Hints:
Blueprint: H1 8-27, H2 34-45, H3 54-76, E1 82-87, E2 96-101, E3 105-113, E4 116-123, E5 128-136, H4 141-157, E6 162-168, E7 178-179, H5 184-200, E8 203-205, E9 208-209, E10 215-216, E11 223-224, E12 227-232, H6 233-238, E13 242-246, E14 257-261, H7 283-293, H8 300-323, H9 326-345, H10 351-379, H11 391-405, E15 410-412, E16 415-417, H12 420-434, H13 455-461, H14 467-475, H15 490-495, H16 497-514
Parallel strand pairs: 5-6, 9-13
Antiparallel strand pairs: 1-2, 3-4, 4-5, 6-12, 7-11, 8-12, 10-11, 13-14, 15-16
Helix pairs in contact: 1-2, 2-3, 4-5, 8-16, 9-10, 10-11
Amino acid sequence: MGWQQPNRKGDLMAESVNNIIQCNNRLKIEDNDVESVRIWDLGHNLGLQCPGDEESIVRELDRLEARDNEVKKVSRVGYSNIGWIHNEGTNAAGSIVTMWHKDAFSFGSQVVGTGFIAVVGQHLKTNRQCIVVNVYAPCNQNEKVVLWDVLTTLKQQYHNMAWCFCGYFIAVRRDDERKGVRGCSRQRKEIDIFNCFIENNGLLDIPFVGKKYTWFKSNGTAKSRLDRILVSQEWLQIWPASKQYVQQRTVSDHCALVVKSLDKDWGPKPFRSFDAWFMEPNFLTMVKEKWKSYNVQGKQYVKLKDKLKLQKLDLKMWSRNTYGCLESNKKHIVKEIEELDGKDDNDALTGDGNMRRLELFSQLGLVDKKIDSMYRQKTRLNWLKYGDINSKFFHLAIRWRRLRNEVKGVEVDSQWCEEPEVVRREARLLFENRFKATHDYGVNMGSLEFKTLTLEVSRNMIACFSEEEVKEAIWQCEGAKSPDPDGFNFNFIKNCWDVMKSDIMEAMHSFHASGSFPKGC
């Protein structure tokens, strides 16, 4: 028998098959787990090391294999009620998948580009058109700027629709959104560019609920808020209570984000007086007549409180029945003007019709002034009093202020809760504990010497309040501010001073005599 070269390839295959059989026998697994054992055996032969016993490793590989098979099933076959679009990215990097449920979203069209998928469609429950953009931004700053420009151009083409930009932006808006990352000068430029993209497109970073950061380095030395959800003003008109909830992080270095718009019943809205009411010709007369008609009993400050309460109820009814909705009134006026313009085009407009049109234009101007006044007051942006009117900006500022000041919920026993009753209870307990009186102040003034007031100044400090003194104090206050949660701002008090001053001064004299206000006043 002659010498033969050993078949090394065949030996390796036999050895590998033998290892698989041994591993199967050792782990006592089923036939459908052979692929997982094959993957682990191959990695083991290549020198791969992994902590843990073989059985747990193979079980985890089997779980991942089952998950991949499920994804492939959706990709190749697809479920009848699930729609999807896949962007493969570049060199297997930046791959994006956007999926939707056909019972909730009706697909219209798509725009796929480098680093994003934009899906245009209709939300079936609200019957509103919207665009959802799934973003996977590149790491390179220059490529990122190109992506921001492409998205800006895309939004300008559909500027009146509800937009939602979500995904992995790889950019932060403030320094405190990134921790343990070097390169401050580069970060500052990146922050400015990203904020410019958001502001130029009129987007809002809706409130976060949960973790502060969405990306974590595996060794725990760095973390950032690289994932976020940005929405347009039109989106908030449909879903005004939109918030982004940060989910728990498992094996991934990112936290998933979920958008929810949960409308909770917090009870009746608090009363607020609006300066635009005084533009109504008979408003001040109505307030005076109502105020004088209130017949209440009790101490002076109690009488003032009860009168304000009755005034509040009458103003609510007047605003609902007489004042009405300004936006609705404006639509009716514009519609009637268009009808008269149509008659004028056909030479069918009479002299009375022309006078009516002039009257409607005058009413339209007054309604616009009222709307602008209410928007200024709601936004509380004082510098805009003397600036240009931009209704879209006002709407955006109002909604952002509401979202920013809104109480999202409370954490009770490590559990997040948004139920109104629980939030009210926890808020009350918080302030009760914080402002609870204590006799142990722990302050020792020692032998400190303080400057003292002269006798004349001391007498003036405890002298009875004069009407001029009280009026001066009120007029020095900002008109749009409210001195109390009752909702009557200082502009209301100033405009109604002649009718309210006697009750206010009697309450001030009563306070001067007793030195305190009773609870609830």
